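ASSEMBLY PREDICTION REQUEST
Request ID: AP-0331
Submitted by: J.K., bench scientist
Number of chains: two
Total residues: 678
Priority: normal
Notes: Please return the full assembly, not individual chains.
Input sequences:
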Amino acid sequence: MNYTDSELIEIFYEDGSKGIELIFKQYYEVMCRTAIRITKERSLAEDIVQEVFFELYKKREKLKIESLVGYLKRAVYNRSINKVKGRKDHVDADEIAYELSDNGHNSQDEMEYGELETFINGVIDSLPEKCRLVFVLNRFEQLSYKEVAAKMNISVKTVENQMSKALKILRAEFEKYKYLEKILDADRGILSE
Amino acid sequence: MNKDFYISLISKKLSNELNAAELKDLNIWLSDDKANSLTLNQFKSTWDLTTDYKSDFSFDAGTAFQSFASKYEIPTTHTKTNIEPKRKVGVKKYIFILALLMITSAFIGALIYNSYFNSDNPNQIANHEMHAQSFNLNDAVNVTIAPNSRFEKGVYTIERKDVSENSSSNTINSSNNNSKNGNSIIGSGNNGNGNNGVSTNGNNANGDSTNGNNTYADSKYGNKTDGIRTNQQESYSSYTQDLSNNSKNNSSDYNINDRNRSSNNLGSSGLTNDKNRSKSNTDNRRGIGSGINNDSQNSKHGHDGKNYTVENFYGQGYFDVNVKSGMKPAIIAVEEGNYIETENAIFNLQNYEDDNFSIIDVQTGSVKFVAGDNVLIVEEGQRLIYDETTKNFEKVSLPKLSPFQWHKGILVFDNTPLDEAFSMMERFFGVDIEVTDDSDLSNQNFTATYYKSSTLNDCLEILSESIDMDIVRNGQRNIEVSNIK
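STATUS: Completed
Returned structure:
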C-alpha cells in the first residue's frame, strides 16, 4: 500500500520507528536508483540511501519536513555527489584530455557481449566523472542546468560545456558501435556462406 | 559560429533548456543544410538510447529494511496491521471491496485457467510469452531465473566475516575432500552416526569414501516438496547414494523416442551431451512445482544449507552478486555438492536437470566454482563448461552474442544447432518439441533474435521460414516437427 507524503509524515512524527519503516519501504528503491546512477556502485548507493534514512530518523524531532520526496532526493543527491567527489580515484574531468580511442572503454569488448544496453551503460560509466555527473543529474534526475550547477558548485556555462561533451562522446561511441556491428554482421555472413 | 556552438544548442534542446533566441538560431542552422538535421537526429537517437541507464537493478526494500533496522538499532516490533495511517473512510469498506475484488479475480482466474490449460487449442500455448522472474534474495544477491527453472532459498542474510565459526555449525567442505572415486563428499554437522569420517566444523574436513559411491553425511537437511523446503529440522543420520544411478542423464525418467538429436558438442568444448531428445511422459521441463522426483532431489543435496544463499539450483539463472566488504561471500549451491562462491560478480548459470553439464558465464567480476576436488576460478568474459559425469571442465571465451540477453526477455539464436534451438524453445516456453521422423538435424543451424513479447508462435513461424520443415501443434504442449530439409 502506498501512502501519501502527508500520511507518512504524520505517522513519522507520531511514531518514529513505525514511520521510518513505511517511508523506507516506500522510497528505498527509487532513492537507490538515483544514488546508483550518480555513484555507479550498487553497494555504495544502498549505503548512502540507508544513511539518509537514518539521518531522517535521528533528526525526526528537529526536522520540519514539508516535502518528503524533496527532502530525500536532496539528501541523496548531496551525499552521492560528495561520495563521488571524495573518491580517491576522482580526478577533475577538465584536467583530462578525453580521447575517444583511448578512454578505457573498449567497444569491441562490449560488442562481444552484443548488448546495446550494456554498451550504453558502459559508455556513460566511462565518461569523465564531472561530465558524467552533469549528464546524469540533467538527463535522469531532470535537474535544470541551473540546479545542476548549484548542486555541483560549478557555473551554468560549465554545465553547458559538460553536457555537450557528454553528448559528443556518447554519439561517437555509438557510431563506433554501429560500425563494429556492421563488420561483425558481415563476418557472420561470410562464415555462414 | 562553430559546430560546437550548435552541439551545445542541440544538447540544450534535448534538455529543454533552449530560450527563444537560441531556438531561432538552431532552426536557422538546421534549415541551412540537410546534414545539420541529420546531426540533430543522431544526437537525438543517442539521447534516447541512454534512457535505461542503470534501470535494470532491482532492490528489495523489505529485506533492506531488516538490515537497516538491525544496523541502526531501530525497533521493529510492531506489525504492519497496526501501522495503518488514519483513514477518513472506514476500513471495513475497503476490506469489503478488497474481498469482492479477490473473489472476482479468483473467478476470472479460474475461467482463464480452464480455457487455457484444459482446452486443446494449440495456439493458446503457442502464444505464451517468455517471462523471466526476478528475485531479490537478500541485500547482496539478485537472481533472474529463466522459465522452468527452480531453486531453494538458503539463508537470507550474508554473515559477517569476523563472526567466529561455531564448532557445530555446518559448512561446506570443498577442495580438501578426499574421495577415492573422485566424487565429492559433503560434510555437515550433527551427524548422529559419524560413520563417514567427515569433519563437521569448518573448512578442512577430509572425508573418505571407499565404496565407490558418493557419500553424504548430512544429518539435517530438509524434505522438499516441489522444490520448497518444508521441514528443515527433519534429521537423517546418513545417506548414501550411488552416483552412477543418479546422474542427471537418467533415461528411466523418460520414454525415449529418439528423434536423431545430434550430439551436442558445446562448441569447441569437446564435451558431449548424449541425452536423446525425447517425448516425455513425465514433465521433463521440471518447472517450478512441476512434479519433481523428490528422491532424486533429496539425494543430490548433502548439506544443511546454512551458508547457502541459493540451494539446488536447476535451470538457468542470471545472478547479480554484490557482497558488502567485511561480509562472507554468497554461495550458490548447484547440486551434488557443487557450488559457486563469489563476492562480486554478475554471471549466468545453466544447470538443467536433463543436461549432464553445467555452464557458468561470467559477465563481470569473478566466481569460484567448487566441484569436488576441482576449484575453478572463472573470470570476467569467461565461460566454464563442467561435465558432471566425467568431472572434466573447459574454460572458453564467452560467445560473441550475449548469453545474458534472455534475462531481459530476449532470445538469441546465433547459428545455433537446430536441436539446441529446440531445447531453448522447450525450456523457455515450457513445451515439448519432438521430431517425429528421421529428419537429419545435424547440419541445420538457426539464427534469429526474438525481443520481448515474442511468443512461441513467433519463434516457430520464423523458424519455419528459415528452415524448411513441417510443424504440427499437437495438444497444449506438444509440438511435432518433421520433414526438416
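REVIEWER COMMENTS: Residues 88-113 of chain A have pLDDT under 50 and may be disordered.
SIGN-OFF: pending second reviewer
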